Every structure is written in structure tokens, then in C-alpha cells.
Amino acid sequence: MRRIVALWLGGLLVVSGLGTIQSVVAQAPVTGGTLTFAAGADPDSLDPQNTQSNPGEQVNRMMYENLVRFNTKMQIEPALAESWTQSADGLLWTFKLRKGVRFHDGTPFDAQAVKYFVDRVLGDEKPFKASLYTPFLQGAQVVDDHTVRVTLKQPFAAFLFRLAHSAGGIVSPAAHQKWGKDLTLHPVGTGPFKFVEWVKSDRVVLERNDAYWGGRPLLDRVLVKTVREDSARVLMLEAGDADLILNIPPEDIPRLRKDPRFAIDSIPTARALYVVINVKKKPFDDVRVRQALNLAVNREAIVKSLFQGNAEAVPGIVAPLQNGFAKLPGYAFDPKKAKELLAQAGVPALKVKLWSPKGRYVKDFELAQAVQQDLAAVGVDAALTTMEWGAYLSATKTGAEQTDRELFLLGWSPSTGEAQWGIFPLLHSSQLAPKGDNRGFFASKALDDAIDKATAATSEQTRLGALREAQQIVIKDAPAIFLISPNMIVGATKKLHGVVNLPLELTYLTEKSWKEK
Amino acid sequence: MAGYVLRRILLLVPVLIGVSLVSFGLLQLVPGDPALILAGEEASEEVLIRIRQEYGLNRPLPVQFLSYLRHAVVGDLGISIQSRQPVATLLGQRFPFTLKLAFLAILVSATLGLVAGIVAATRRNSPLDIAALLGSLVGISLPIFWLGLLAILVFSVKLRWLPSGGAGTFAHLILPALVLGAASSAVIARTTRASMLEVLRQDYVRTARAKGVSDRLVVYRHALGNAMIPILTVFGLEFGYNLGGAVLTETVFSLPGVGRLIVEGIFARDYPVVQGALLIVATTFVLVNLLTDVAYAYFDPRIHYN
């Protein structure tokens, strides 16, 4: 009997082994086909130096390439530059460029094109994203066809991260000379896919670039469709009209997960959501009040029940996936201590205004409601209001004298993927609203010093140390109620392979992406 | 007649100036800054100033309005702040599509609505009448986006007969036209029923019946012609709404129509796009109304325009 069982088991192993082999065979990449990708919004622009939204950036990532790029762990790897060196003072960077690369218009990619990019962001045109580079970039010189030297005004630790940002996409100089600002309607890069057409708020069509230096792309065409309605995107996937969809409503996730046709991925992002505190308003100028608000919120419960695990509690304003994040203890959920602190500050009962957008971030308004409930439990009565995003952006950016805003929910995903850009624009004293994005008017000499040190660091050790110090100060001074980092939910048919999901909330295809027949 | 039509078309000029003024004024009242939305949260003050300058948003409002009018008169509706595409091009892409959809939808609603309304009126209080009344009540009450999603679920996801959204082929238009048409057919059915009942009670109908005219002839020749005036009015209104206000249908089915262009333009504070699109919608509304008035005269020879 035992032998029979053993034989049977052995047979089972062989059969299952065969099964694996077969599935491996079936997994060999297939060439050809059109992929339909349903995104929630239209690109804002297809000119990388003028693009500021994710729907635009992810289309650009398929058409343009940067000197260096992020891998999915947010580390820097070579792209159009094969290697680079930095001078000891951190001011001189020499890049060796990849050879044999051509733009989609047939012109060669060379040192001149890199210099053209640097000149453009520093020049009079002032593209939207120039401010990512102007504070530290000095200029570029062509050494030879495939070597370019970039000089900085001051050491800048996050230089490579800035180059890897979507705004660092290298544009064909010939195309930019021809089209100027209308480059957005005639994009030309070096990437695996070429531009075909853009029908505003309907679709962008891309086709494979046969001359791509990384080999001929497997997919023939990529069709990026703008489908505003969340449920409509889900239905498109279910009907087989879309192969890949973004921003799946949380309530649809369990049903789609049960369907064997689809793969639903929950991917952590570099975005932090938090409630900004206007520190110029009483009693929020008292750090004890701000700390009490942080102690009152039950982040773990929010992650578990509201987000059903598709989020992570964040100790400070920097999300774990931002390069430079320091694992520090944040505020534990302690309503008792919160009440004590409020009593010490002389505000045992408090009426506050709480603002939140609705639909800008996943479950943003529900998150504000959860905060409202937690605050109520410690005697803070928050009146919650929402407004449309365009109005919200303006209302939260006025100067200290023109506003009576108190608590307001916002999110930040540093598009350069590193923590300096996760702290500096939001909390450095040089960035106060209305000029900058420090919308809660927090100012601290100690924090400024730590950020400045991180900004100008020439070694990785100094950079990480200074960022850690900055995050410590932020947590202690509590210029915001720190909340969570939400995951992005991407759905695709299981026939699709090689989709890139960058934690910067960018989903795109590469030359290696392919679709089963 | 020709003189009347010409006068009405000339009246478009003050209407369009009025529409421009109202849409311009309302957009200025909406809080929010186009430059801030366009350049995003990371943009520097310098960039915001540059955008405001480039699109003339920093000029005094009367100057902005007059400059808009001056360009609009010669057909230049400006360029989109968001995408830099000329507004005229955007409308050129969208408007034919919206026209097609509106036309198909009114075809659906006219057929459904007229048939249901006539049947209900001629067989008053019969089960058919009650069914038609109930059906139109449901049709009026159902939110159109819900009906749209349900239609996608049944015909695209389950049965796989029709595409779930987007534009391209005629098949893409069937579901949206049915959904949009179903909603307005309910209104048309109710109007038709009421109007027919009114007419069927008239003396001349009784006379015709007494003369021995066949039932069919009485209903379709004698009664329907006279009942047409209020029905035409509803036709005109529904067609007009479909041209400018089919936003929900366009959103659910991801259709590149004028309604969505306007709504997305409002969210982005893309002033030139919203103003240009409203001009087109207002123009067509006026023309559809004119067409309705001309049709009155056709159905009722007693109506003269002179």
C-alpha cells in the first residue's frame, strides 16, 4: 500500500513537474499585438520638461529616456548614460553616453543633445520643471560626441535623482527647435515607443520604435485611453476591452481578485498623506497641541479597516519608499496622553476647521473623516469641509495673512523619489506659501540646517545622516498630523507581462513588455 | 418665411455675445487658478508668473474679455491652456461626434417615445397604457450613469456583444445612443400621450370617427398632426440637451464629446476651451430651436411667420 502511495505521489510530482515545464514554455515572450491601457486622466503635456502630472509622465516614460533611470526599488541605474564620475568637490560630473542611439526623427543622440537639455532648463524658456534644476545646475560642455561634462553651482546630493525624474527626459534638439512649446503635440525622444497621435482626453497612440537601442520592442502598439469613470475602467478590463487599468476602486478589488483572468497588484508608493497644521494660528503654535493631534490618530486602524491593508502607516512626512527615509519611531496611538497634552496646553476642548479634497487621492475624504472621529475622541471637534481640487489648491496656498485655514489634508509624492524633495518644499522656511509649498508656515532653524546639509552633501553617508536628523526634527515638532502612505492598485489581464510599476505612481510599458496571444 | 429665418439667424449675434459675457463672468467667479492647476504643486513662483503672462491671465478682466471677443469674431477661439491645441481644432474633433450621438439618440427616443405615447393614448387605461406609463416613469427616474454602467455590464461584460466604451466604429455608438435615447424617450412618451389624449377628445376627431374614417387614419392623420406641436417642442429641447449636456453618458462610455470637454475644461480652469465650447453649444441650441419653430409651421399650416 505504502509503495502504491509512493508511486502515486511520484507520478503526481512528475505530472506537476511537466505542468511547470509546460507553463515555462508558454511563458516565452510573444511579439506583436496592441496593448490597451486605461488611465484615469489625460496627459497634461507630452513635453517632458513641461509635464507635471502622472498621466503625462507615464506616457513620456515610454517615449523619452533620461541619462539615468530608477529601477522599481527607486535606485539609480544607467540609461542613456552608461557611466559617470563625480569630482571630489561634487561640482563636476562627467557622463559617458551610450553609443548608436537615435531619436525617433532619425537624428543621433549625443553630447550635444544633453547640452541642449541643460541649456533649455537654464534658459529663457523657463519650462515648468526647470525649477528642479535651476537651483544648482551651472551648465554643460561637450567633451566629445559621447562624453558630456555637467557643472553645478554647489554640491547637490540628489543630482542623479533629479536627472532620473521624468522631467529629465532627453528631447530631440531638432524637434524642439522646430516646434518650440508645441513640442507637446509632436513629441520626439529615444524611447522604445514612438508617438503616433494624441486625441485630447480620449487616447494617446504609440507604436514600437524598431530602431530602439535596447532591441526591437515586443509590443506593436500601445493605446493609452483616458477613462475618467472608475467603474468604467473596471468594466473595460472585465469586458476584455482594456489589458491594463489604473486606480481600481477599493470596493472592486476583492471581486477582481477572485477572477482567475486578472492579476491585481497592490504596490506601495512614495506618497505620504498627512494633515497640514497651520502653525501661525492659535493654539497650533503650541507644539504640545500638534503632538496631541498626532497621538489622537489611530493609523493602524486606518490602514487595516479603511484601506484594507493597501496602505502603510508613516511615522513622519517622508514615506518609506522615498530614498533617504529613516526608520524612526512615530507617534503611537495614545488618546489618554493626547488629552493630557491638550489640558497642559490649556485647550481641553477645541473647535477646529478640517479641510479635505475629495477624489484627489485614494479615499482622501474618508481618511479625513477617520481623523475627524479620532480627534473627537480627545475633545477636538473638527468641522470637516471639502472643495473641488482646483479651488482647494488655491485656498491652501494663500499667504499667512490672507487665510484662516487650520487643518487641511494633502499628499506629497516627491517626483524625484528621494527624501530631500519630500521635506524641503513642504517644510523649509524659504518655501513659505504663497510663493512655495510650505502651506502650514512651519519654520525651524534646526530643520533648515539639516535639510541644507542633506542638500549639499557630497557623500551618501552625509546625505542619509542629515536626512535622518531632519526627519527626527519633523516628527518631534509635528507640523502636520502624519498619516499613511497609500498603495497604488493596478489591474491587468494575466496575459500581460513586463509591466513596470514605479512607486512614483507611474505605470508604463517597456521594450520587454509583451502580451500572450 | 425666408425673412423670418434670416432674422432669427441674425439674432444669434446678440445671443452669442451674451453667452460669451455670462460664461466669461461665471468662469472668473469660480475660485482656482489655471496656472496653479497647470504647473502643479511643485512649480515655482517664477513659472506661475510666466504662465499667467503667456496666456494673458494677468491682464485686467475687461481687457481679457474684449481681446477674446476680438479674436472670436474672426473665428480664432484661442488655444487650450492645458494642451496648447487650438480650441477650434478640439471642437472640430469633438463636435461631429457629439452631433452623431445626439442624432442617434433622438432617433431612438423619437421611435420609442412616439410609439409608446400613441399606444398608451389610444388604449387608455389598458395594461399597455399602464406599462408605458410605468416604463416612462422608470426611464425618467433612473440615473443615466447607472443605466449606462448596467448596459455595459450586460451587453459588454456578460454577453460581449458591444464594446464597453470609447469611440471608433458604429458599434461604439450603439450602447450610448440607446442609454441616452431611453432617458429622453420617457419624456417624449409622456408628452405624446398627454397631447394625443387632448386631441383625441376634440370635436373634429369625433366627427371624423362618425364619418366612418378608419381608426388608423384618425389617429395618424387627424390626431397626430395636431398633437405634434408640444411633442416637437420636447424633441427640440431633448436634442439640444444631448448636444451639450450628455456629460454623464460621455463619461460612463469614455466618449470624446463636447460635454466632457466642457466639464474637464472647468476642472482645469481652461477658460478658452470652456468659452469656445459654450459658444458652439449655444449656437446649435439656437439653431435647433429655429428648426423646431420651422417644423411647427410644417405640421400646423395655421402658423405663419411674417
Q: How would you describe what is shown here?
A:
The complex is a heterodimer of chains A (517) and B (306). With 517 residues, chain A is an alpha+beta fold. Chain A has 15 helices and 20 strands. Chain A has helices at 2-26, 54-63, 111-122, 159-164, 173-179, 230-239, 253-258, 287-296, 299-306, 335-344, 364-377, 389-395, 420-427, 445-455, 460-477; strands at residues 34-39, 68-70, 76-78, 81-86, 92-97, 137-144, 147-152, 193-199, 203-208, 221-226, 244-245, 262-268, 272-277, 311-313, 350-356, 380-386, 407-412, 480-493, 496-502, 506-515. In chain A, the strands form 4 sheets. In chain A, strands 1, 8, 9, 10, 11, 12, 13, 14, 15, 16, 17 and 18 form a 12-stranded mixed beta sheet that branches. In chain A, a hairpin with a 5-residue loop joins strand 2 and strand 3 (76-78). Chain B has 306 residues and is an all-alpha fold. Helices cover 78% and strands 0% of the residues of chain B. In chain B, helix 5 (87-122) crosses helix 8 (171-200). Chains A and B meet through helix 6 and helix 12 of A and helix 2, helix 3, helix 7 and helix 12 of B.
The end-to-end span of chain B amounts to 7 Å
Share of helical residues of chain A:
25-40%
- Form type of chain B: globular
End-to-end Cα distance of chain A, whole Å, is 45 Å
What keywords describe this structure?
heterodimer; A: 517 residues; alpha+beta; twelve-stranded mixed β-sheet; four-stranded antiparallel β-sheet; 15 helices; 31% helix; 24% strand; globular; B: 306 residues; mainly alpha; 0% strand
Topology, element by element:
The complex is a heterodimer of chains A (517) and B (306).
Chain A: H1 2-26, E1 34-39, H2 54-63, E2 68-70, E3 76-78, E4 81-86, E5 92-97, H3 111-122, E6 137-144, E7 147-152, H4 159-164, H5 173-179, E8 193-199, E9 203-208, E10 221-226, H6 230-239, E11 244-245, H7 253-258, E12 262-268, E13 272-277, H8 287-296, H9 299-306, E14 311-313, H10 335-344, E15 350-356, H11 364-377, E16 380-386, H12 389-395, E17 407-412, H13 420-427, H14 445-455, H15 460-477, E18 480-493, E19 496-502, E20 506-515
Parallel strand pairs in A: 1-10, 1-11, 15-16, 15-17
Antiparallel strand pairs in A: 2-3, 4-5, 5-7, 6-7, 8-9, 9-10, 11-18, 12-18, 13-17, 13-18, 14-18, 19-20
Chain B: H1 2-29, H2 34-39, H3 45-54, H4 61-73, H5 87-122, H6 127-141, H7 144-158, H8 171-200, H9 203-211, H10 215-245, H11 247-252, H12 258-267, H13 271-299
Helix pairs in contact in B: 1-13, 5-6, 5-8, 5-10, 5-13, 6-8, 7-8, 8-10, 9-10, 10-13, 12-13
